[in-house]
Amino acid sequence: MTESVRFTGGRILTGARAVDAVVVEDGRVVVAGSEEEAHRASPAGTEVVRLEGRLLLPGLIDAHLHLGELTRVEEGFPVGEVRSIPELADRLASWASAHPRGPLAGGGWSAEQFGERREPTAQDLDRVVRDRPVVLYHASGHAGVLNTVALQMAGYSDRTPDPPGGRLGHAANGELTGMVYDAALAPVRRVTATYPPSPAGLARILQRESALGVTTVASLNTDPEELRAIRARLDPHHPTLRVRCYAREASWGEFAPSDWVRSGAPGDPSLVGVKTFVDGAFGPRTAWLEAPYSDRPGESGIPVRQEEELVDFFERCAREARQPAVHAIGDRGVLEALRALDRLGDQGPSRPRIEHASLVPPSLFPLLDRVRPTLVVQPGFVWSDDWLAERLGPSRARWAYPFRTLTEHGHRLVGSSDAPYDPPDPWRGLAAAVVRTAPGGGSANPAVDETLSPSQALELYTRNAGLALGEPDLGSLEPGAPADLVLVEAKDLAGAIRAGASGVRQTWVAGARVYDRARPPDPQTV
Known about the structure:
Elements: E1 4-13, E2 18-25, E3 28-33, H1 35-41, E4 47-50, E5 55-58, E6 60-65, H2 67-75, E7 77-78, H3 85-98, E8 104-109, H4 122-126, E9 134-138, E10 143-146, H5 148-153, E11 166-170, E12 176-182, H6 186-191, H7 199-211, E13 214-222, H8 224-233, E14 242-248, E15 270-277, H9 307-320, E16 323-328, H10 331-344, E17 353-356, H11 365-371, E18 374-377, H12 381-384, H13 388-392, H14 394-397, H15 403-408, E19 413-415, H16 426-434, H17 454-460, H18 463-468, E20 485-488, H19 493-499, E21 504-509, E22 512-516
Parallel strand pairs: 1-4, 1-5, 6-13, 7-8, 8-9, 13-14, 14-15, 15-16, 16-17, 17-18, 18-19
Antiparallel strand pairs: 1-2, 2-3, 5-20, 9-10, 10-12, 11-12, 20-21, 21-22
Helix pairs in contact: 7-8, 9-10, 10-11
């Protein structure tokens, strides 16, 4: 029997236009038009959802987050709210007492949050835990501080040279500080016994995403065990979010050919591409810049990949028909990625992605306009990185997250959160794209010239994100599109963005309700 649902009695935005009603059959939109058209197209027994003047939108897509890391951060030692080094030590002591065995891992700290305005050290951690490894990752994920046991287990000593694409922190006397940056984190992750995300943790994360109106997520840096864990948690026969994954480059060869087969169905996660890195992040000053950091003139970041290595990576992606996703934050990092792409020319139907593209000064536009990759940005960073002008200087920070300029140059911008390295709330990203200054007054780049309209911002998290994933029907409510949609308590889009996540009332995927604020979720399902 055909399952049919008609949405009526409110304002509906399809992604291309406003309509009065939508009819869904067997998980897809069959009619988007007038009340009369929808009524005529509805078979007997159609469920009618009355919007009661509220707004219906295409389901939101988070095109860049990290499901495994989200789960591990939730289950590890929380550091994000700590405000001083002594408080960090006290909380670590309590956590170690409550977890008496195994390595201690956590994350979410930054020097800017501490009253001391400095990075913690191995000595700080050793005062609390000396008998087992402690690893606390920076909020960016591109650095971490280790105690002495963890440094030794990773194979690091005062005489260890910096690995390619990474760096070890040293004090003035040459001793290790405990700080480890970018590629130097590879052996550290083995020390903390990398494990797949727990089923219960994944369930909580996916339930939370659906409550935010998210219907599709793309998880980057996926390892084979993480993909298996996600597949074990999701049920193709039960309504759930759509999950797409991008393989960690180091794990590329470990995936089975069947992992790359795509059904597109909810509950059937599949690999769509491969992620690599050009540089690090602004927070630990490892994003690769053309000129040194304003607040640390001796440093310009860390090049993780050079142009020739990137060319090899792109060529392999083209041979194996895998979409490349390249992390590049600093202006020099973005330049290296663009130069490599320019050498390869047309990459076929799956346009390469540059993840972040955070600093894009005018000098990059001639090459960027020629290469035209998809730019997967994180609007929430505009609010989070309110210290960026100190890092880069005001004139350079003016070209951080230049969304309106990029849009006017015709570039496809795609919205995402990069969670857990920023909150996984797409409504926060939508608001930051429309209002560049956070409610508390902070902004990485408050230039009003870079604001987007509400409809432009929504496009980042709907139609553009579907195109970036190679699924042009996602992010739309036009006939033929998957019936992924979100009902919000607002009369228009601007009001919905102001209301934020609290305005979400229902989320549907493939015509099935996966979240309803009026109905508590079943803890056994997603």
